Amino acid sequence: MKIVVTGSLGHISKPLTEKLVQKGHTVTVISSQPERQSAIETLGATAAIGSIEDVDFLTATFTGADAVYCMVPPGNPFDHSHDVIASVGRLATNYVQAILQSGVKHVVYLSSIGAHTDKGNGILLFHYNAEHILQTLPSDVAIAFMRPVGFYYNLLSFVHTIKTQG
Ligand SMILES: NC(=O)c1ccc[n+]([C@@H]2O[C@H](COP(=O)([O-])OP(=O)(O)OC[C@H]3O[C@@H](n4cnc5c(N)ncnc54)[C@H](OP(=O)(O)O)[C@@H]3O)[C@@H](O)[C@H]2O)c1
Fold it and tell me: To pair with 155 at 20 to 30 A between CA atoms, which of 2, 6, 141, 163?
C-alpha cells in the first residue's frame, strides 16, 4: 500500500515507518525539516518536507495514498503560552480538509488513553476534541483511533512535575 506517515522521525513515526517499509509498503514521511530528508530516505521511505499546518501541502502529499497515519505534535505541554487545545483543533481540521480533498479512504489517528471523555482528563482533552473533529468525516472514510498509554522514554519531560508535585 501507499502510506503517508506524519510525525517525521518522532518516537512513534520512526519505528512505524521502519515496520511499514519492512513489510513492503511504499511510505512517505512528512517532516517540517529539510535536513531530515536523508535520514528519512535511509529508512527506505520518501520524504515530504512541509508543515501539517499547511492544508494545501497536506492535500498534495495525501493524494494517491491508500492510507494516512495522522498524529498531532504535542509541543511543550508545560509552555503555558502555547494553547495546545486550540492548536490541535486546528491541526485536526487541517487533516479533515486534506483527507476530503485528496480522497484518502483509510485513516489512522494517534489518539491517547483518556480520549473517551471530555471530563477529568486534563490536557488530553485535545485528543477527545480531535477525535470528534475527525468523526465528521463521511462514512466512506474508514478511520481507526489508537488510544495508547504512555511510553516510558517520555518520562524525562515530567521531571519538573515529579520534583515539584511529587
Ligand atoms: N509518547 C507517548 O507516551 C504517547 C502516548 C499516547 C499518545 N501519544 C500521542 O502521540 C503524539 C506524539 O507522538 P510522538 O511522540 O511520536 O511525536 P514526537 O516524537 O514528538 O514527534 C513529532 C514530530 O512531528 C514533527 N512536527 C512537529 N511540528 C510539525 C509541523 N508543523 N509539520 C510537520 N511535522 C511537524 C516534528 O518532526 P520534524 O522536526 O522533523 O518536523 C516532531 O519530531 C501526541 O499526540 C501524544 O499525545 C504519545
Answer: 6
